[in-house]
Design brief:
The protein is an all-alpha fold. It has one domain. It is built from four helices and no strands.
Length: about 150
């Protein structure tokens, strides 16, 4: 009787070469996640600085959001939104790196499973963002074509 794909799946093992690759991937994952957290923080700081400078500039020009001008709030909210959206992939990446390191050091199957669960969450999150981005791109393209068609007629 031939082994099925299901039984072969449960016979997978992490050999020393795989351990080396996973250990290296975990180190890079933690480095990239920490760098990502720093950039998230910089986006928030940048949002505060831009909002303050924009508010001061608009006040010096005599423009206020109540008179129909755009305020500094939406600009700051956009930057903080970018920081918030980019926080979660970095968190999943950081958790993967930490859990994988622990799993390989202690030969801990539960930590290995949690590490792979974080990789799955990272890919799902980025995949959903990609779908949303592609949808917005298609919508923008359609609106552009409709607008161009109306202008030409």
């Amino acid at each position: 009787m031939e082994p099925t794909a299901q039984s072969n799946l449960f016979e997978l093992q992490i050999d020393p070469t795989s351990m080396t690759y996973l250990r290296d991937a975990a180190k890079w994952a933690r480095f990239l996640a920490i760098a990502g957290f720093v950039f998230c923080g910089l986006f928030v700081v940048f949002a505060i600085i831009v909002a303050t400078l924009l508010a001061n500039f608009l006040n010096s020009m005599g423009t206020s959001p109540a008179s129909g001008g755009m305020g500094a709030g939406p600009v700051a909210a956009a930057y903080i939104g970018i920081a918030l959206v980019s926080f979660f992939p970095n968190l999943y990446l950081y958790n993967f790196g930490g859990r994988m390191r622990i799993a390989l050091q202690n030969n801990d199957q539960e930590q290995l499973n949690i590490a792979f669960k974080n990789v799955r969450a990272l890919f799902r999150f980025v995949g959903v963002l990609m779908i949303i981005g592609l949808g917005m791109f298609v919508l923008f393209l359609l609106l552009l074509l409709i607008t161009a068609g109306r202008l030409n007629s």
